């Protein structure tokens, strides 16, 4: 899959930054590939890019209209269709990571054919994938896990890979979600894989490798999330992680999309993920904690990081504030 760049990031009418996490993350990790953002009235998200119309973006050289907002269930809003048609008319391709396929919209598909433009539905897995075996394979793997979904697992994984490489380690980021795939240029959208093959898909994504090579695997949701645990369990089993990094937002009271259900504690979430991971790797363990302190000021964030490290006896970081050095040091010694 070759997606033309630069991108115009479409944020729609996202009600907060998390609802636009795809666009925001691409702007942060691949800003050089973005000409601007397009926001609808009422949009509460901001990727920090210039606000452009479709016409302005085309004139600035945009090649792909990239849907950077997420919706519950990955649904395409019907109101976006006219924008997609206009983008195709102006010469832009379309890329989307939603569950609903842009290519399944008859008018958009026909317009893409008429204007000789491409549609990239990156959440469509390119199988077939095998059933997972649980057999050990050489190479090392670190998996980011968390107390909830949309909490910073991808960000932590990308930051880990960057700092591991800077420390001279052989490391490869393995994308398992649509945003990670758009950033990395490859990967497998696990939540679109048939359940029987999720673990096998992860084994394919992270195959046998050199003994000192680390796959840095992007986590999905949590094994304690009633809605999405099915994907997480398959991911943990297939990853056979040697190490896991627990991601947590200390300011989030309830689980994403579940009303008043409290976010589970770090201790019980570590216990649950280690129990799951040890089915296929008996030595799997959580080696560090990554806190998402974006809603705290500097003093409060650093105090929370120190308290968490002291409470759990694990190196604790916020990759955006402190970097990942303490956790990278642990991985380097494994």
Automatic annotation (TrEMBL):
InterPro entries in UniProt: DgcN-like, DgcN-like_C, DgcN-like_N
Pfam families for this protein: DUF1611, DUF1611_N
Domain D-glutamate N-acetyltransferase-like N-terminal intervals: 41-125
Record lineage: Bacteria, Pseudomonadati, Pseudomonadota, Alphaproteobacteria, Acetobacterales
Organism: Elioraea tepida
Superkingdom of source: Bacteria
Listed name of the protein: DUF1611 domain-containing protein
Domain D-glutamate N-acetyltransferase-like C-terminal: 132-328
